[in-house]
Specification:
single chain, globular, Rossmann fold, 6% strand, 5-stranded parallel beta sheet
């Protein structure tokens, strides 16, 4: 019950989400909903205190153009993220900051201890280390700030397509909502910039793969690292991700077949949009790497990333990169099995990606 990121949202946002989903919480998950209600109510005075104390200080904070890691679920983005934050010249959004974005400046010790108590030692989908101070997806913070996030689909999966179409692809969404989404993102990055002494921020969020134009509009000069992986592996590993995540986060039961269809549609839609918009990124501000090459030689690959994006600090961080890689040298990914019927289906649905990223049928 404690592993519920929404416990770090605001009371107003929580009520909006419940109303938007017509209070459709399955009875087995009512204790989880009560836990979130209790936490957001208890934290309300602390949220108010933080806004009063810090919002004025944040007004004049300038955000250095961020560095975005994009890709697909289970495509290697997390390992790349964990590795790159060994560079101490880069700031990042931690697990604690993503789960408690309203309160991490004024009550870091209290908030961190709460988050540490509820976190498992390893991520449920891949056994990578999990900790309050380790990097996390900033989209969880956006979800705790507002209703305008795809990650609300983890909590209310029966409307997963709605959250995807509206808050990843931003189809048929008003300019007012887009502006509110931008302001929430800017507010988060101002807080991170303030906390980390104006360092460049490294961000990793899968859904940003479908928001390239919007990110460039919001953060001119932003740079991008796209990591891609064999689509067969991505499909199988993403299916496992949904099987592991939804029972922990969701307030609703959901049909497995519906989720499988959505996994296929998500990949198609987000990558078609990425391929359409990536040409908007100025030359020298994007680098694309193949997961299979990256895991063979992580540090060498990272050196090329730094060179192509003209990032400083590789030499200074090289020892830390090697040390981190050595910690995971015996790590073995989950061994997925795939039958011919699934292979055929995935190739037919994602043929454009096999060709674009040069993978064999």
């Amino acid at each position: 019950m404690g592993m519920q990121p929404l416990a770090g949202t605001s009371f107003v946002n929580w009520v909006k989400l419940l109303m938007e989903n017509r209070f459709r919480v399955d009875w087995q998950f009512i204790p989880k909903a009560l836990y979130v209600t209790l936490m957001v109510t208890a934290m309300t005075p602390i949220r108010i205190y933080e806004k009063i104390k810090f919002d004025k200080k944040l007004e004049n904070i300038k955000i250095t153009p961020p560095l975005f890691i994009v890709g697909h679920f289970r495509g290697g983005t997390t390992f790349l993220h964990y590795l790159m934050v060994q560079d101490k010249d880069l700031a990042f959004v931690s697990t604690m900051e993503a789960n408690a974005p309203w309160t991490f400046l004024g009550t870091e010790k209290i908030t961190k201890s709460i988050v540490e108590k509820v976190l498992p030692e390893k991520r449920p989908m891949d056994d990578l280390e999990l900790g309050a101070s380790l990097p996390y997806e900033d989209e969880y913070a956006i979800a705790n700030f507002s209703p305008y996030s795809f990650y609300h689909a983890w909590y209310f999966p029966r409307r997963i397509d709605y959250y995807f179409r509206n808050y990843v692809l931003f189809e048929e969404v008003s300019d007012e909502i887009i502006e509110k989404w931008k302001q929430n993102y800017i507010y988060l990055l101002k807080k991170i910039t303030y906390k980390h002494n104006r360092k460049r921020i490294l961000l990793k969020s899968i859904v940003n793969t479908g928001r390239i134009k919007l990110l460039l509009d919001t953060f001119p000069g932003a740079k991008f690292i796209h990591i891609y992986r064999n689509p067969y592996k991505v499909y199988l590993s993403t299916r496992r991700l949904y099987e592991k995540i939804l029972p922990i986060f969701s307030f609703q039961h959901v049909n497995g077949e519906d989720m499988d269809k959505f996994i296929i549609e998500f990949y198609k839609a987000i990558y078609r949009k990425y391929l359409e918009e990536k040409n908007l990124i100025p030359e020298g501000n994007i680098v694309e790497i193949k997961y299979e090459d990256f895991v063979k030689e992580p540090v060498k690959t990272l050196e090329q990333v730094y060179k192509k994006l003209k990032l400083k600090g590789f030499k200074e961080a090289q020892y830390a990169f090697k040390k981190f890689v050595d910690r995971y040298k015996n790590y073995k990914p989950y061994d997925h099995k795939i039958d011919e019927s699934i292979k055929k289906k995935i190739y037919e649905e994602w043929e454009f990606a096999f060709k674009e990223f040069r993978y064999e049928k």
